[in-house]
Amino acid sequence: MVGSELASQPQYLLNRAEQELNVNSRLGKLAMRIAPLYLSCFGVPEVGVHVRIRHALANMPRQVDSIVDLGCGAGFLLGAVHRGKRARTIAGVDIDEESIAVARATHPYADISCGNLLDFEGGPFDLAVSIDVLEHMSDADVPRFFQKAYSLLKPGGLLIVHTPAIGQRRHFKVFKAWEHHDHQREGFTRPDLTKVAQASGFQVNRCVPTFGSVAALCWELNMLLAGGVLQSVAFPWLNGIAQFFDRSPSEGNGILLTATRENAQESAA
Questions:
Q1: 102 with 75: CB under 8 angstroms?
Q2: CA distance 260 to 266
Q3: What 8-state DSSP symbol labels residue 170?
Q4: What pTM does this model have?
């Protein structure tokens, strides 16, 4: 389950839910008592996190030698990769000091750096992944992100990027004006994301929608219930429904791009 390795960090997760999603637990001290067990069983109770990471995992090779998570946060993807034995070497970088401290405490097998990912030096890696990071960047930094990812990958290496889409559809009126507190943009279009990746030298393999109508509805219902007893009961069901119906949506609130760094022979040709 995504985030189960953070069972020892319930206060961090409760704080982040309040800061980023405006969710305040109504369970008081009870939340701190049951959170570790709940996280161990079901993972972090946020449908969006599970959907995004499932899409990333589904588009990864079964196993690679090395992977880096660009914008790893507290390490949800790192934990999923480790549990699935997807990579021998796992690395991550994020600018948020609190998240990095949690990631280091809960993912001792990973090489985790604190700093701006645009300044990160490492690799070369077989696989680079970035989940919902680009929307936090300025227009000038988005091309720099792809250039950085290109430089971190081995020839033939794979980049997986997930971002929100522009013009997201909502089911409930309360979410019509939903905004994240530190987003620089609402999201991207698939043509624009493809174009900026290609401009940095990548060969784009796929650029497809994620977070279709059913998954979006499950996310909204989970958010409406967030912080209370009903959410703890409903989340496993909502998450399961979202995962089942969001395998290949025809349109959605998210975008998944996979792109390959050209190998040396292709470059020479």
A1: yes
A2: 12
A3: -
A4: 0.91
